[in-house]
Design goal:
- The protein has 285 residues and is mainly alpha-helical.
- It is 80% helix and 0% strand.
- It contains twelve helices and no strands.
- α10 runs antiparallel to α12.
- The radius of gyration is 35 Å and the shape is elongated.
- The relative contact order is 0.08.
Length: 285
């Protein structure tokens, strides 16, 4: 095996090896803690606890059991969600970039092992570098997309979770366990990619609708006349009273000052404005 081939293969393996380290994975090893928490939360809504809830008649005890069952279910969902987000982050960042660079590096190594290796070394290395940069750019774009999606998913979860917690202060008559578990199911669904994308699409649609409403569709017809020229002459005097009168007339007509001065449909308002301007006292010396 040539020295160049060994170097390129080593470079190819670096992304894969880096993906195995906890620091790159982005999370400490909490396996033991998660296992204990998982068992604890799962016991909160076990079949036995559900049967106990059905048998209890005391309102206070019944509300306490309902709350314990609901919070246990939420805790279990949170643990599952944390694992899901961690996997999503790793798959979106490390795996695609590492796989792309590895593929490019191995292809480069193949180009360097032939009899013409000396002639193609620089070209092959240049190709590998450019390919690595392209893979990195794509990974950054994917990472930004995933980050936005994760933020939206967490926002969805926070909204549903807050609503559930607020209702736990109610009695089981106004907020029975069945209704609470329906909300818990909504909480679980809020942390899915589908829900995140749907919310982003909905917000984008709302933003588009707002921008469409605010977009200026009308281009006024330029129709300057003798009143336009006269009004502009008054404005050029720099008399504050003239500027105030022009702005007041535009406000009364519910248009902008330039629209009032130049639009063909504002001829009548311009004539009124010109009459007002002629009656104003001259600018103080």
């Amino acid at each position: 095996m040539s020295r160049i081939f060994k170097i390129v293969v080593a470079l190819a393996l670096l992304p894969a090896l880096a993906g195995c380290t906890p620091s790159v994975a982005g999370t400490p090893n909490l396996t033991e803690y998660q296992a204990v928490s998982d068992r604890y939360f799962a016991s909160a809504f076990s079949t036995q606890r559900l049967a106990t809830y059905e048998a209890v008649t005391d309102p206070g005890r019944r509300q306490s059991l309902r709350n314990s069952i609901v919070l246990g279910a939420i805790g279990t969902i949170d643990l599952r969600y944390a694992k899901f987000v961690n996997r999503l982050t790793q798959e979106s960042q490390i795996v695609p970039f590492g796989a792309t660079v590895t593929s490019i590096s191995l292809s480069t190594a193949g180009a360097l092992t032939g009899s013409e290796a000396a002639k193609t070394t620089l070209a092959a290395v240049d190709t590998a570098i450019k390919g690595g940069v392209a893979a990195y750019d794509k990974s950054i774009l994917a990472d930004r997309t995933i980050q936005a999606l994760q933020k939206q998913m967490q926002a969805n979860r926070n909204r549903v979770r807050s609503a559930i917690i607020a209702k736990l202060s109610e009695s089981t008559l106004s907020y029975p366990l069945e209704l609470a578990m329906i909300d818990v199911n909504e909480y679980a669904a809020a942390g899915t990619i589908t829900a995140g994308m749907a919310t982003i699409d909905e917000q984008a649609a709302q933003n588009l609708a707002v921008s469409e409403d605010e977009k200026v569709e009308r281009i006024y017809a330029y129709a300057a006349d003798e009143t336009t020229a006269a009004i502009i002459e008054f404005m050029n005097t720099g008399n504050p009273a003239v500027l105030a009168a022009v702005n007041a007339a535009a406000a009364n007509a519910r248009v902008t000052a330039p629209f009032l001065i130049y639009d063909a449909g504002q001829a009548a308002n311009r004539r009124k404005l010109l009459t007002t301007l002629k009656a104003l006292p001259a600018k103080p010396a």
